[in-house]
Amino acid sequence: MIEKLGSLIERFKKETLINKLKMLWLLFFIPGLTGIIIRAVSGERLAGYGSYVPWGLWIAVYFHAVGISGGAFAVGVIGYLRGVRGLKENLRTTLIVSAVSLMTGLLAIWLDLGRPFRAYKILVSPNFGSMLDFNAWMYGIFLALVGLVFYLSLNKSGEEKTNDRSGWLVPILSLGVFLSIAYPSQSGAFFGVVDAKPFWSSAILPVLFLTSAVTSGASAMLLVHYYLLGDSANSAGPDEEPFPYLRKIILAGIVVYFLGEFSEYSLALWSPISHIKETILLIMFGRFWWVFWIIHIGGALAGFYLLFRSRSLNRLAAGALIIVTSFISTRLNILIPGQSIPEIRGLNEAFTHPRLSFSYTPTAVEYLVALFVISFGLALFHFSRRLLATFIEKNNGRRQ
Amino acid sequence: MTKKKTKTTPTQRDGDTSAKDAGKNISVLDRKDFISKLFKTGAGTLATTIVGNGMLKSVSSLYAQSKDNRAVKRKFRYGMVIDTRRCVGCRSCVLACKAENKTPSGVSYTVVFEEILENRPNDKPVFMTKPCFHCEHPPCTDVCPVSATFKRERDGIVVVDYERCIGCRYCMTACPYSARWFDFGENYPAIEQNTPWAQVPSPEYKQFRKRKNKQSPVGNVRKCTFCLHLQDEEGKYNKEEGRWPACAKTCTGKAIHFGDLNDPNSEVTVLLRERQYMRLKEELGTSPNCYYLI
């Protein structure tokens, strides 16, 4: 048995990077598919959230993916406008990463809806007083803008040019940067406007969400550029652009995020009558202490170390991978503990039912569906890249 | 607030059909062709319809709401006065509500919680029944992205339109009193086993829905309606005729009082004039219409 496993590992090591990734993708997709079938058949009966903690893992995945989308666009486009090598030649890849992440996030929240087939009503009969609706429209506008930028990017006289022939590409990209900063910040505002939850009702949330978005977006971009190198990644160095540019942004992002978080936590813990102290203690020493100490703090430290000290591209990519995955804890640690303190004392005991609990643990189905959402995003990215290559090829052929 | 039903205009239908055809016809060969085909197939028309029917109406309704707030002329202001000295914590209100509204497992429009107050001569807890407070400024309605939950203009009762609600649960997080419930589609065994009980429709909103898997209100957010299905055509309840919210009607200790807070002679107004009362979390500015006598 062990010998067989050893030979399988040996065979895996000999495979190309693409094949290795495909095999890993299957590990996400097959269980994920099971989860999505269960979700389709049983609705939300097998989800772990309830009426007191109505949002769970899928909402965290949604906000994380939306953050990656905004962050990747902002970082990629600013790099493009500044002429950073690698980003300058791959504007369309930046657009794909951003659009795919956003669609992945939207899939996650779509699966979370009680009546998913009515989701179109958000756009058709909106209530702009709701931050959710405002966000939805921002996503729509942003996706339209990405499409427009894609169209204009085909109108360049040469790949080395920054602007297109009409001169509209750069102004629209600048508007896109503004939007890509705006909607991850709005994700923070989405929680910030909920006065019923003292932990959420904080002005620092939009800043934390934006910082987290930029950090995880830059990490995703680093991973994508590592993937683009393919098997030549082993020979390339970490000093080759865009890696130093992305590395600096990720490092700065981690520092700024933890500064913000420290200022919020330390104030609450220092204050004798803080109304959010209980929530913070729950995050740090509650049932899910390991999410804070191991995934959040440990992940950030490990990622920071690898990104700061690495002299090899593989380690740099490992650092980025740790950051992009562990930073989901930044969403989870705001989302779940914010709902886990009863609004009124005694509610927990007022009516006994599994759905009426302030303690939330994601169920197996929730994890499986989350795996499906991730595998969907990865597949969409892969096929979009292939479609892009075919499209460019055909378009160039037509021009000639 | 009266909701106008959005009609599907012929333009919308045309736009939808041609957008479907567009998927078949567009080949990603030339960007100019692509853009021109996109416009020809009516994506522009669809967008205009969405903007025309949805956005503009939404903006105008926001304006209308602010106008309403300035000069609200409401016929009734229904509310509850709950006497904490009379409540014995028997929870008959919880059962009565369940029986009246046929709420499923995990959904309970009213709950009774108890709090042991410090520095009291005895250790008797204070029981408080907690329905939806039908706040004057309900934060739950503002956050709904599709305006599926709203405060009725006539009587101030906060309701949910089950055919409009998308089940996003934003309203549940926004309610400071945890008075909203998500219907996960779970049933009591009697319903699952398809006994005659399963065929009894719920009178909620006078819609008389029979509970069916994957049909609204499954997947919707639900809440107390002050049993508004017991109102007559004019929106009035009648205690003598038994058309009275189930919890107030059944309360064994006569602790739950219900009535029109705008009527100076109603039982609730008299009680508020004569007794000391408090409301929960008044600092949030929600102005709940449920008062607790202390």
Approximate strand percentage of chain A? under 5%
Q: State the distance separating the first and last CA atoms of chain A.
A: 58 Å
Distance between the termini of chain B: 34 Å
How many structural domains of chain B?
A: 2
**Could you give the count of β-strands of chain B?**
10
Give the CATH class of the largest domain in chain B. Answer: Alpha Beta
Radius of gyration of chain B, rounded? 24 Å
Order of helices and strands of chain B: HHHEHEEHEEHEHEHEHEE
Largest interface: A-B, 58 and 62 residues
What's the arrangement of strands in the largest beta sheet of chain B? 8-1-10-9
Query: What would CATH call the homologous superfamily of chain A?
Result: Formate dehydrogenase/DMSO reductase domain
In short:
The complex is a heterodimer of chains A (400) and B (294). Chain A contains 15 helices and no strands. Chain A is mainly α.
Per-chain topology:
The complex is a heterodimer of chains A (400) and B (294).
Chain A: H1 2-14, H2 17-42, H3 57-82, H4 91-112, H5 121-124, H6 131-153, H7 169-192, H8 204-229, H9 243-270, H10 277-285, H11 289-309, H12 313-326, H13 328-339, H14 347-350, H15 364-399
Chain B: H1 10-25, H2 31-40, H3 43-70, E1 78-83, H4 92-101, E2 111-115, E3 126-130, H5 139-143, E4 149-151, E5 158-160, H6 170-174, E6 180-182, H7 189-192, E7 221-223, H8 246-250, E8 256-260, H9 267-274, E9 277-278, E10 290-293
Parallel strand pairs in B: 1-10
Antiparallel strand pairs in B: 1-8, 2-3, 4-5, 6-7, 9-10
Helix pairs in contact in B: 1-3
